[in-house]
Every structure is written in C-alpha cells, then in structure tokens.
Amino acid sequence: QVQLVESGGGLVQAGGSLRLSCAASGRTFSAYGMGWFRRAPGKEREFVAAISRSGGSTNYADSVKGRFTISRDNAKTTVYLQMNSLKPEDTAVYYCAAPKSPSYIGGRSYEYDSWGQGTQVTVSS
Fold this sequence. Notes:
11 strands; globular; mainly beta; seven-stranded mixed sheet
C-alpha cells in the first residue's frame, strides 16, 4: 500500500498558475508510475496526466495538453502537476494516484489502486 497526500490547491484567477504536489510513502516510489485525476462538481472523475517511474514518459488528457505539466522528484518521493493558463472548467478536486502495475501510465482510473484525499482547485473567471 502507498499513502498519497496532495497539497497546493487553492483559489486562482483564470489565466493564472498553480502547482500541485503529491507526497508518497509506503512503497518504492521510483518503481511506479503516477497519475493525476480530477473530479468537478456533477461530473465523473477524469484523467488528467500521468508520468512513468523514471519521468521519461508522460501522458496527458487532451483538455490539459499544452497547459499542464506533470513531473516527479524521486529523491523527494513527490509528483507534481504544474498548471498554467488555468480556466474555470479546471475547477475540481484533484487527486494523485498510484497504479497497480508499476509501468502503467494510462488514463483508466480502475488501473489505479491508491488514491490521495484530494486538493481543491478553484479557478475564478
């Protein structure tokens, strides 16, 4: 089991930036890919981004491609989500997640078995 704790959420104006962090513990962090998901009010959880265990490969949802950047610091056992050019539709609770398979960096939520509690991101217009 891996424990995940998100931080960095808050209020930001449209067009602004925010950096989310996810601190992991409980297993060998560097051996697993990591992902970010979000859930907006009235919507189902959706995939945002994922990164491979080494950080060499990334995967993004079309809705955030070009605006968000996922990265990781294995020495700090932390994964980040840099969010730029934020839009009101980015408003959601953001969750980091660890997959069942060490090499998985896809967007299927059921392939992830460890989830953080989430951090709220609110983008005002």
